[in-house]
Backbone:
């Protein structure tokens, strides 16, 4: 969702509350496709504090569906994001708490705030690299691909030590035919 910031920037000290909704998206995260959605609308509070600077604050509950790192089943998890940014609209930068350090941002362009991009930017900072469907997930069989959480298989799970391959070859040469 895009929010035009011209109205807020017109008067110093002006505060505006805008109802916003997150657009359901599929995004790439380190080669994995995430399905991100938020069910409820939320209030975005915009406050013009200084010349060209707007405080953006809101809370949103985001639902993320990703793939379990072991068994490849879908895993759904919710994250509550409390977002508070001090944005310099003219420079396209966001300030940290001490207002001395800033970094370039991609969610403001031509006095327009892209709320979806801001939410994804914050979400990427809280997502773990890997996710499991349950703590004791057994994964999938390396041989046949069976989900070991749902059923078992009779595949030989023994993986030979590659350092012992030379001895294995010698023993195979002397085996009786």
Residues:
């Amino acid at each position: 969702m895009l929010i035009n910031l011209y109205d807020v920037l017109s008067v110093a000290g002006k505060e505006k509350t805008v109802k916003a909704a997150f657009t359901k998206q599929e995004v790439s995260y380190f080669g994995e496709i995430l399905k991100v959605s938020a069910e409820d609308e939320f209030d975005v509070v915009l406050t013009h504090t200084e010349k060209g600077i707007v405080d953006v604050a809101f809370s949103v509950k985001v639902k993320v569906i990703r793939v379990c790192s072991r068994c490849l089943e879908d895993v759904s998890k919710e994250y509550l994001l409390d977002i508070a940014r001090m944005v310099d609209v003219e420079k396209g930068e966001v300030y940290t708490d001490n207002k001395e350090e800033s970094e370039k941002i991609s969610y403001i362009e031509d006095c327009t705030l892209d709320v979806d991009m801001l939410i994804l930017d914050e979400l990427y900072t809280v997502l773990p690299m890997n996710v499991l469907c349950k703590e004791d997930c057994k994964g999938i069989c390396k041989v046949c691909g069976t989900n070991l959480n749902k059923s078992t298989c009779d595949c030989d799970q023994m993986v030979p030590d590659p350092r012992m391959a030379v001895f294995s070859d010698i023993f195979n040469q002397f085996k009786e035919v």
User: Anything to note?
Assistant: The first strand starts at residue 2 and ends at 4. Residues 68 and 131 are 5 Å apart (CA to CA).
